[in-house]
């Protein structure tokens, strides 16, 4: 498992932007940050955790949930061991707790939360109308 810490959440008006950060540490057995696929998930109150986006360790391919309509962009800073989620044109329905997560090293990006064994504590995003 890897240690993940999210930051950057907050309160923003509809149409605004936020950039979330996910800092990774605690690598062991010779593995490094670029060996891990990293995903962002979100969870709205009373709803199941929803996959948002993932960056693959193999070639840094990025994939997104279709529902995001290209408003979100995931990026990576290998020097800082950090994955970012740039969120633009935010809507009230984007409100929720945002988590970054990593699957086991022998696994790939997945939309299923049960496939991940490392999770951050989450950062709250609230979009007001």
Short summary:
This protein is mainly beta. Helices cover 0% and strands 46% of the residues.
Can you offer a commentary on this structure?
- By secondary structure, this protein is an all-beta fold.
- The chain has no helices and eleven strands.
- The protein has strands at residues 3-7, 10-13, 18-25, 38-43, 50-55, 62-64, 72-77, 82-87, 96-102, 118-119, 123-128.
- Strands 2, 4, 5, 6, 9, 10 and 11 form a seven-stranded mixed beta sheet that branches. It has a four-stranded antiparallel beta sheet with strand order 1-3-8-7, with no helix packed on it.
- The N and C termini lie far apart (38 Å).
- The model has no long low-confidence stretch (mean pLDDT 94).
Structural class category: mainly beta
| Biggest pleated sheet | 7 strands, mixed
Question: Number of DSSP helices?
Answer: 0
Please tell me what the overall shape is. Answer: globular
The whole-angstrom Rg is 14 Å
**What quaternary form is this?**
single chain
Uncertain runs with pLDDT below 50, 5 residues or more? none
Number of strands: 11
The helix-strand sequence is EEEEEEEEEEE
Distance between the termini: 38 Å
Helix content: under 10%
Strand content: over 45%
Q: Mean pLDDT, rounded to whole units?
A: 94
